[in-house]
Specification:
alpha+beta, Alpha-Beta Plaits, Chitinase A, domain 3, Trigger factor, domain 2, 3 domains, four-stranded antiparallel sheet, 15 helices, elongated, chaperone
Length: 447
């Protein structure tokens, strides 16, 4: 088999593969056998007609096409294995020469995992600073307040709502070009009906702690002074969402107060501390909280530092990205966006309509970030290769078992997930951990 390989731009290669005539003839015979398996010819049992008769009945063109598919598939895989080529995606196959008694020649064009020229990644790790971690009294106070609120009692009040009260309220939002982005769509037949335009959305028994502005900026202030059973209508300026797309304009909101309650927090004393777990007193609780907050802050700082380092490495690396990898990452980002919107009760098509952009425009806006994500993945992979990082089989199986433990059996897991994909994903995660451990070690060695 003769093979010529030519490098193309954007990490693609073109292979011209020539299969000797003697090998090609074997594929022709195999094609006749495959196509003749179900052929019924008078005087012969099904699938048992001689080759000459099968060729006559089926036709030369169909046999050549079948043989070409068989030959291309097997020869292509053979070349990848022998030449140790890491292909990405399906190849584009073009048949160049195809005739009986002659060599079979075809061309395969495919993207490959690109070569990555890394910068001095250990030096980069040493140069990227880490933030100092400390736990102050404010951190402890905020955590204790959260714990007290989680054990709070609620006393129903027959008086106007004020800052700090917990209220339950029904909200109806008049239709505007943007409100569905913020309020889950739906119409309640019990909503006030005064002949105005249709409603864009409603929220029933929405729980709000007045003053925390947890739902919409400015809404809490509009609810101050309302009593149980009272209704009110007001305008509210809608904010710009976190993606920078205009959601805003004014929305007309109608509110009905269903319940006003005072939040009674438990007293912070030794008894309360002991009710939270195995703590002797308030001092013991504070000590444990400080340790827990310290661990949490350190984890967040480690994650921030890891991303800062690997982004710097990716920025300084030299790599030609295949279009197919960029497109895959764009598709992944679109899936992530759709998942996030679904969690908010929104549909992707409605989101596109609200921000007045098409799916193609959103995909295009992902390109820069998608390229960086691909580069980061390739850099992590290349560092692992250069450092000869290998994942122990027992450790890999143990890590996979943690995930698989949620299923009753392996058979049940096979019905829900691709075990081979899980294996590759888990192995990649474990490799990345070791890469970051290596970079952490380099940081620790700086003078």
């Amino acid at each position: 088999m003769n093979i010529e390989i030519k490098k193309l731009p954007k990490s693609e290669i073109e292979m011209e593969i020539e299969v000797p005539a003697i090998e090609w003839d074997k594929y022709l015979s195999l094609a006749v056998k495959n196509l003749g398996q179900n052929l019924e010819v008078p005087g012969f049992r099904k699938g048992q007609a001689p080759q000459q008769i099968v060729e006559r009945e089926i036709g030369k063109d169909k046999i050549l096409q079948e043989a070409a598919q068989l030959c291309c598939r097997k020869s292509y895989v053979h070349v990848l294995a022998t030449k140790k080529i890491e292909a990405v995606g399906a190849p584009k196959i073009t048949v160049l020469k195809m005739a009986t008694g002659n060599p079979f020649v075809f061309r395969a064009q495919v993207a490959v995992v690109p070569e990555v020229v890394l910068p001095e990644y250990e030096k980069i790790a040493r140069d990227v600073p880490k933030n100092k971690i400390k736990v102050d009294d404010k951190d402890i106070e905020e955590t204790i307040n959260y714990l007290r609120k989680s054990r709070a009692q609620f006393v129903t009040l027959v008086k106007p709502a004020q800052k700090g009260d917990c209220v339950k309220v029904d909200l109806w939002v008049d239709q505007t070009p943007s409100t569905e982005v913020l309020i889950k769509p739906g119409i309640d037949e019990t909503a006030p009906n005064d002949g105005k335009k249709p409603l864009a959305g409603e929220l029933k028994d929405q729980v709000i702690v007045l003053g925390e502005n947890s739902l919409l900026p400015g809404l809490d202030e509009k609810l101050f002074g309302m009593k149980e059973g009272e209704s009110k209508e007001f305008d509210l300026e809608l904010p710009v969402n976190k993606d920078g797309h205009e959601v805003g304009g004014q929305a007309k909101i109608r509110a009905k107060m269903n319940l006003v309650q005072k939040i009674v927090l438990p007293e912070m004393n030794d008894e309360f501390a002991m009710s939270l777990g195995k703590f002797k007193d308030v001092a013991d609780l504070n000590k444990n909280l400080r340790q827990g907050i310290l661990v949490e802050k350190k984890t967040k700082e480690d994650e921030r530092w890891h991303m800062a380092v690997i982004n710097k490495i990716a920025d300084l690396s030299q790599v030609e990205l295949p279009e197919i990898l960029i497109k895959r990452e764009q598709d992944k980002m679109m899936t992530e966006l759709e998942s996030n919107l679904t969690a908010l009760g929104l549909q992707l098509k409605d989101y596109f309509a609200k921000i007045q952009r098409t799916e193609a425009q959103i995909q295009e806006s992902f390109v820069k970030q998608a390229k960086q994500r691909v580069k980061i993945g390739l850099c992590l992979r290349q560092i692992a290769r250069q450092e000869k990082i290998k994942i122990d089989e027992k450790d890999l199986e143990a890590e996979m078992s943690k995930f698989l433990s949620q299923f009753e059996s392996i058979d049940q897991a096979k019905k829900s997930i691709d075990l081979e994909a899980l294996r590759l994903y888990t192995e990649g995660l474990m490799e990345n951990r070791q890469v970051f451990a290596l970079l952490e070690k380099a940081y620790g060695l700086k003078s």
